[in-house]
């Protein structure tokens, strides 16, 4: 019995998602659409159709990477709200590398583009890391402000210096075709980005679970004072983890440009960085669960458009449902498994049942 | 017949499986000073929290001035005329004295009339011989003054029963006398004072009646005049207390190991907390540091362990200057161990398992890891061995350390800090809040480290503990070492003078 | 250059600075209140958005901007209730709860706005119009700038000193300050920490909601998706810059408002430079202000920490 209760606890995010979908059904019903029809259109459109699945996988790439970019520093207690900005800087830097470097073989050029993206995001992530470590500035507010700055920088660059001539709205020249990422599902846009995310998720799992670095990060996240006491260089880890997170965010941006957009657009990320926060909490900060959460979330987003076409429901409802998901997931985290409490409760119940049984027997 | 200001009948309180209070009876005569005596964990504080409405009793009844009473909350307690002075002051540092006093005062209306309250407060403080400026911010006041603010706070609310929880533990010996005088003045003004302590001499000096508690039960209640301190101690501990020191093997001290020269440091507020501190510790020697809490001891420990950079001075171990070394290097290259004062916030990660806490100091080196990869299997073996050796009571090494008792948590820390075979050990307040049994285990562990040749700095506010184990005693006051004595010379009077800041040179 | 000294130009510049400051002033005052009680209110952004949405819907449905204002405050207040439940009641990390609420509000207001306001979202709504205060409005230059404003600006003139008076001159303000610094002491003095924090958070969100309503009812007269556009976060920077004091926060907001007015002016005067270069100015100014001030200000000591009686 105790084990069952423990599993129920472990599946908290699943219950939270179901609760969010349930409340979301109410939102759908408000606009006069049958929620069941809407949801079935959404899920079949996202997961059961070849092109739909490809659309889901395309979104999984940035959302999964963004999730990982939130998870890593959060293990050290740092809330990285700046993934969105890091994605933009990653996209910007990889576009720089793709368009401005002298011609060279794609075998060399492509990795350079990807590395540039990671570097751009990493440096952008290092700013809040540095300010936190050496000035004690709250990383949440700094990363939020940096998001707005990064988005405006990209808009400025593609609206001015790098804007394609005669473009109807701000975007850059197209990158060379040899730099396009390989496609996984033929005939679709599904590039290898999500596989990169998957590999990174597994690698991060091993890093956090089995290495001294993971141990140090978790110690800082649980009790920074004890980490200092244990001789862990807290400031260095704060900066490093924010740099690494920024690099992952930058990677997400780079892959988005190289794999899908093939040129730098202004506002090219529709809030993937914030979806990463949802993913991180749904996965309960475990990188192994992140791909599942990201895949599900991407499905919701990709399916939303199918749903809009099929039943005429505004696709923005999905944004509202995602908001509900993170609220419910966050709320579910407040309920921690307390073995003694449940044991006492079960024993008391058994006692009551035994007493009842005894009194029944007397009659 | 005497009137009882407060009467408790068969009051009980249970936390989970733990019976904190078991059928407590208590009778407090109005207008008297009543001491409640007991060791740590005897249930004194739980009892007081019940009287103050913070906890509800699970059984029994409370009678207040002859009327049956239920105390649902602290504010209700205050309305009934019960005032409580906690061991940790309930004062907001950034607010002024008068703001702290009127905080939560009912019936103030719309506007805060601080000037009016300040005037009444000054009047009140003069009545009791307290001399306090009502407009000064709390953080600028010395500890003794803050305690007076606490007392003024309850007097201002017209409390008739004043409960004080371990009030003298934060005071220097010379402050204690004037504090006890203050208690007598309160009694003479007709107040009932309940005074919780574990210090026998204070009880003998000031209390009229006494209740002795042990393990959640009352073992005696009597007039103070009719009982000797020896009997009090026996009833408090449950057996005759042998106050003789441990058998300290007379090993000759080894070579000079730790040399601290003119160390100074700034605390978190930016105030100089450590001033020009110099001392030496030999291998196999225990140097005790006595003093009232907050006189630079914490900063001294942090400077030694590398958690706080000194603003001046130098530190050397075995001739090597370590002033600039990081915490990591001190721990691993120099072999420095540290048992910090605050188990919960510094020494342990409460949400981590026992095993991960055992790894905390040395997780980057063998046997806990190799080339940056953790070796959980070896870690489990090592932890199991330590748990057995130090008698840490637990359900499993995977259990979160949060759920261990204070004594077992401290034993785990000791295992970790001793088993790495340190050359230098800094131990701060290791026995705070522990029962007699655990204290004995820990003091033996410290002595066997001494035996092994470790240089040990033992910081404590309990002079008795220090005299028990130390080879020499340094006394700190206001960030300086005011004197270093041999235990046999450390009489209460001498140590008291040093703690009060009168250094040997001046007094001589 | 001589343009700068032109009186008309100055009046215009100050006027637009004030208009751009008003919403962040409301939000920042709300933020001060919540943070002085020890609760981070990252969801100010969501509250502004909720206030704007409520104001638009209320006005659209009833035709009365006053009803719109009331609905805006109600929506923002409900956001406050939600934050209080999550952060004070359940004790979830206050930052996480605030961010979750912001994400929810973005999605919810976009969806419901399309549903309720539909295609009419572009047609303008009735709003508040400037009322000249007799006498005061005729003072040269500053008269029209300060005293020819709409009712919400006048409300702001009241809210700033009132919140200062509340925090520093009333017993409740004392309670709030004590709880933000050392809740244990407040609890032992018989003050309910969760109650005070809950009230502070809800009022905080309602104030931010007024700021959002101002955007719709006094500035642009339409609701657009994500129209809060980071104003809540600038308000957070402003209240740090103002050292958690309502008057300080007010001055910081005026500074941010001026930097915003300046960048709009630059967009106007240099049309060949992409405007994004200028629109990052307020965010850059906030960031620089935070960096320059870091280490010099001390937030309320108990901020961000959930309060558990007798907790370890």
Automatic annotation (TrEMBL), chain A:
Top-level taxon of origin: Bacteria
Pfam families: BPD_transp_2
Classification via InterPro entries: ABC_transp_permease (IPR001851)
Membrane topology type: Multi-pass membrane protein
Chief site of localization: membrane
Entry GO terms, CC: plasma membrane
Keyword Transferase: no
Keywords assigned: Cell membrane, Membrane, Transmembrane, Transmembrane helix
Single GO term (MF): transmembrane transporter activity
UniProt name for this protein: ABC transporter permease
Organism: Aminobacter anthyllidis
Stretches that traverse the bilayer: 7-30, 50-74, 86-102, 108-127, 139-159, 179-208, 237-257, 277-297, 317-337
Compartment(s) of residence: Cell membrane
TrEMBL record, chain C:
Membrane topology designation: Multi-pass membrane protein
Gene Ontology CC terms, in alphabetical order: plasma membrane
Subcellular location: Cell membrane
Keyword Transmembrane helix: yes
Chain segments annotated as transmembrane: 13-34, 46-63, 69-88, 95-116, 128-147, 154-174, 194-221, 233-257, 277-295
One of the record's GO molecular function terms: transmembrane transporter activity
Keywords, alphabetical: Cell membrane, Membrane, Transmembrane, Transmembrane helix
Pfam families in UniProt: BPD_transp_2
Listed name of the protein: ABC transporter permease
Keyword hit for Transmembrane: yes
């Amino acid at each position: 019995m105790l084990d069952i209760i423990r599993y129920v606890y472990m599946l908290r995010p699943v219950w939270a998602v179901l609760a969010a979908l349930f409340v979301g059904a109410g939102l759908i019903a408000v606009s006069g659409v049958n929620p069941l029809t809407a949801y079935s259109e959404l899920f079949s459109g996202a997961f059961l159709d070849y092109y739909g699945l490809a659309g889901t996988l395309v979104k999984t790439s940035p959302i999964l990477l963004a999730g990982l970019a939130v998870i890593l520093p959060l293990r050290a207690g740092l809330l990285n709200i700046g993934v969105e900005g890091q994605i933009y800087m990653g996209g910007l830097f990889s576009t720089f590398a793709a368009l401005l470097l002298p011609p060279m073989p794609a075998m060399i050029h492509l990795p350079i583009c990807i590395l540039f993206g990671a570097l751009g995001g990493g440096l952008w992530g290092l700013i809040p890391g540095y300010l936190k470590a050496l000035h004690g500035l709250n990383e949440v507010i700094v990363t939020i402000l940096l998001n707005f700055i990064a988005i405006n920088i990209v808009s400025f660059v593609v609206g001015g210096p790098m804007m394609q001539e005669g473009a109807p709205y701000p975007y850059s020249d197209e990158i060379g075709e040899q730099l396009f990422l390989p496609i996984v599902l033929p005939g679709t846009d599904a590039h290898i980005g999500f596989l990169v995310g998957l590999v990174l998720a597994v690698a991060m799992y091993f890093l956090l679970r089995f290495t001294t670095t993971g141990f140090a990060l978790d110690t800082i996240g649980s009790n920074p004072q004890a980490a200092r006491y244990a001789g862990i260089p807290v400031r260095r880890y704060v900066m490093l983890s924010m740099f690494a997170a920024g690099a992952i965010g930058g990677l997400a941006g780079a892959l988005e440009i190289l794999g899908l957009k093939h040129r730098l657009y202004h506002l090219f990320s529709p809030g993937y960085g914030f979806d990463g926060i949802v993913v991180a909490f749904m996965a309960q900060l475990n990188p192994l669960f992140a791909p599942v959460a990201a895949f599900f979330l991407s499905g919701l987003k990709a399916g939303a458009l199918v749903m809009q076409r099929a039943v005429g429901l505004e696709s923005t409802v999905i944004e509202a449902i995602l908001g509900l998901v993170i609220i419910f997931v966050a709320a579910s985290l407040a309920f921690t498994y307390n073995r003694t409490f449940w044991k006492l409760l079960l024993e008391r119940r058994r006692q009551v049942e035994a007493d009842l049984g005894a009194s029944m027997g007397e009659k | 017949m005497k009137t009882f200001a407060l009467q408790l009948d068969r009051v009980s309180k249970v936390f989970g499986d733990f019976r904190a209070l078991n059928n407590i009876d208590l009778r407090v005569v109005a207008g008297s000073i009543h001491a409640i005596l007991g060791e740590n964990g005897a249930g004194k504080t739980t009892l007081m929290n019940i009287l103050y409405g913070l906890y509800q009793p699970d059984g029994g009844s409370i009678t207040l001035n002859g009327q049956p009473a239920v105390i649902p909350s602290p504010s209700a307690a205050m309305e009934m005329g019960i005032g409580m002075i906690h061991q940790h002051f309930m004062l907001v540092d950034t607010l002024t004295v008068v703001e702290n006093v009127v905080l939560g005062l009912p019936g103030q209306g719309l506007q805060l009339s601080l000037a009016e309250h300040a005037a009444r407060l000054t009047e009140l403080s003069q009545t009791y011989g307290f001399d306090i400026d009502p407009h000064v911010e709390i953080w600028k006041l010395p500890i003794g003054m803050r305690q007076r603010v606490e007392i003024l706070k309850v007097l201002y609310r017209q409390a008739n029963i004043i409960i004080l929880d371990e009030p003298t533990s934060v005071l220097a010996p010379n402050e204690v006398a004037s504090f006890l005088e203050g208690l007598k003045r309160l009694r003479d003004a007709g107040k009932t004072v309940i005074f919780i302590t574990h210090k026998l001499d204070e009880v003998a000096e000031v209390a009229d009646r006494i209740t002795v508690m042990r393990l959640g039960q009352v073992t005696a209640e009597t007039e103070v005049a009719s009982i000797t301190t020896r009997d009090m101690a026996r009833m408090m501990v449950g057996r005759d207390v042998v106050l003789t020191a441990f058998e300290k093997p007379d090993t000759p001290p080894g070579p000079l190991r730790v040399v601290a020269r003119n160390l100074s440091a700034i605390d978190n507020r930016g105030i100089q907390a450590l001033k020009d501190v110099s001392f030496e510790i030999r291998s196999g020697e225990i140097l005790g540091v006595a003093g009232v809490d907050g006189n630079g001891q914490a900063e001294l420990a942090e400077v030694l362990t590398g958690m706080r950079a000194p603003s001046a001075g130098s530190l050397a171990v075995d001739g090597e200057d370590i002033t600039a070394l990081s915490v990591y290097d001190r721990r691993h290259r120099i072999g420095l161990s540290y048992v910090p004062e605050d188990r919960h916030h510094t020494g342990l990660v409460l949400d981590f398992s026992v095993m991960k806490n055992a790894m905390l100091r040395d997780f980057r080196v063998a046997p806990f890891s190799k080339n940056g990869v953790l070796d959980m299997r070896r870690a489990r073996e090592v932890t199991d061995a330590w748990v057995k050796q130090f008698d840490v009571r637990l359900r499993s090494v995977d259990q979160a350390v949060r759920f261990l008792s204070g004594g077992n948590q401290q034993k785990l820390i000791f295992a970790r800090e001793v088993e790495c075979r340190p050359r230098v050990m800094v131990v701060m307040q290791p026995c705070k809040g522990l029962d007699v049994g655990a204290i004995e285990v820990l003091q033996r562990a410290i002595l066997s480290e001494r035996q092994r040749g470790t240089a040990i700095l033992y910081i404590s506010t309990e002079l008795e503990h220090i005299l028990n184990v130390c080879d020499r005693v340094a006394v700190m006051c206001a960030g300086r070492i005011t004197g270093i004595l041999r235990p046999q010379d450390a009489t209460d009077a001498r140590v008291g003078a040093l703690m009060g800041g009168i250094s040997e040179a001046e007094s001589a | 250059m001589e343009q700068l000294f032109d009186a008309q130009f100055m009046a215009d510049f100050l006027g637009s600075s004030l208009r751009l400051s008003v919403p962040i002033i409301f939000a920042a005052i709300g933020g001060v209140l919540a943070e002085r009680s020890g609760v981070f209110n990252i969801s100010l952004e969501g509250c502004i958005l909720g206030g704007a949405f409520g104001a638009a819907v209320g006005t659209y449905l009833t035709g009365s901007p006053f009803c719109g204002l009331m609905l805006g405050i109600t929506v923002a207040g409900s956001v406050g209730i939600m934050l209080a439940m999550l952060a004070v009641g359940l004790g979830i990390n206050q930052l996480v709860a605030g961010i979750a609420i912001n994400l929810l509000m973005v999605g919810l207001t976009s969806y419901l706005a399309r549903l309720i306001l539909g295609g009419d979202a572009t047609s303008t709504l009735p709003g508040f119009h400037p009322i000249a205060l007799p006498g005061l409005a005729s003072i040269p230059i500053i008269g029209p700038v300060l005293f020819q404003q709409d009712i919400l600006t006048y409300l702001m003139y009241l809210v700033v000193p009132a919140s200062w008076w509340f925090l520093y001159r009333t017993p409740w303000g004392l309670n709030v300050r004590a709880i933000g610094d050392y809740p244990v002491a407040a609890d032992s003095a018989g003050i309910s920490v969760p109650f005070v924090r809950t009230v502070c958070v809800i009022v905080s969100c309602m104030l931010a909601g007024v700021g959002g309503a101002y955007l719709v009812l006094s500035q642009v007269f339409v609701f657009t998706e994500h129209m809060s556009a980071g104003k809540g976060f600038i308000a957070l920077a402003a209240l740090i810059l103002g050292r958690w004091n309502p008057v300080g926060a007010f001055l910081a907001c005026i500074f941010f408002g001026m930097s915003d007015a300046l960048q709009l002016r630059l967009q106007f005067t240099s049309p060949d430079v992409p405007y994004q270069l200028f629109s990052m100015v307020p965010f850059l100014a906030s960031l620089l202000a935070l960096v320059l001030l870091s280490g010099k200000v001390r937030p309320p000591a108990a901020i961000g920490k959930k309060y558990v009686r007798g907790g370890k």
